[in-house]
Amino acid sequence: MIIDMKHVSWRREGLTLLNDVNWQVAPGEHWALLGLNGSGKTTLLNIVNGYFWPSEGSVSVLGYRFGEVDLRDLRKSIGWVSTSLQEKLYVSDRTQNIVISGKHATIGIYDLITEEDLAFARSLMEKLGCAHLWDREFRTCSQGEKQKLLIARALMAKPRILILDEPCNGLDLFSRERLLASIKDLAESDDAPTLIYVTHHTEEILPVFTHALLIRSGEVVHSGRTEDVLTTDRLSEFFESPVIVEEHNERVYVRIED
């Protein structure tokens, strides 16, 4: 299993933030993680990355059981892209240097840049449709362009798992669709890592995401194949309100029932 979590709970200061979570991700699967703000998505991801230790239950990632592996080494195989990372980067850095810094997961570059690094960074930027940004200052890029660069940065370390944490936040409709198209191409590539796409918008869940997990108040409400999870009945139960599911181009749109 890529991820194997069994009966995982996490408590802090008397609060249960995750309760009895079971989640298995098999090779070849890409997952969407759907939940409203405060549902426990970030806590779950912090456990996958080994930043939080479960109060109960067992966790294995990439076949390594927590407690039997150096988590610092394991994290090198996991890329995590979030908009909060943008605030930590040097805005005057050149785009290719932003991407290359992902090789060592550093803010800025402190090692010699090799021709191989430059070639790999360029190939990643081409794959994500942002090669035209080469040698631009990071601050001159749009929000959508920055997100593509951050994904390329995460891929620079050749991770086996790539977590995309609400990557479309703050994007307009057109920027969102361009970013989603790049994510689709990435997921369909032969050397794609296992993708975990985190969102609270069902319409962002592309057909390439074979499975979905619905989390609410720290508990898994449903998980399984996407077409079985994103249904009117299950989403109405999940949102605790009657909703109507409409499908367009293999993507699910939800509206509140009148």
TrEMBL record:
<dbReference type="InterPro" id="IPR003593">
    <property type="entry name" value="AAA+_ATPase"/>
</dbReference>
<dbReference type="InterPro" id="IPR015856">
    <property type="entry name" value="ABC_transpr_CbiO/EcfA_su"/>
</dbReference>
<protein>
    <submittedName>
        <fullName>ABC transporter ATP-binding protein</fullName>
    </submittedName>
</protein>
<keyword id="KW-0067">ATP-binding</keyword>
<dbReference type="GO" id="GO:0022857">
    <property type="term" value="F:transmembrane transporter activity"/>
</dbReference>
<keyword id="KW-0813">Transport</keyword>
<dbReference type="GO" id="GO:0005886">
    <property type="term" value="C:plasma membrane"/>
</dbReference>
<feature type="domain" description="ABC transporter">
    <location>
        <begin position="3"/>
        <end position="242"/>
    </location>
</feature>
<dbReference type="InterPro" id="IPR017871">
    <property type="entry name" value="ABC_transporter-like_CS"/>
</dbReference>
<dbReference type="GO" id="GO:0016887">
    <property type="term" value="F:ATP hydrolysis activity"/>
</dbReference>
<keyword id="KW-0547">Nucleotide-binding</keyword>
<dbReference type="InterPro" id="IPR003439">
    <property type="entry name" value="ABC_transporter-like_ATP-bd"/>
</dbReference>
<dbReference type="Pfam" id="PF00005">
    <property type="entry name" value="ABC_tran"/>
</dbReference>
<dbReference type="InterPro" id="IPR027417">
    <property type="entry name" value="P-loop_NTPase"/>
</dbReference>
<dbReference type="GO" id="GO:0005524">
    <property type="term" value="F:ATP binding"/>
</dbReference>
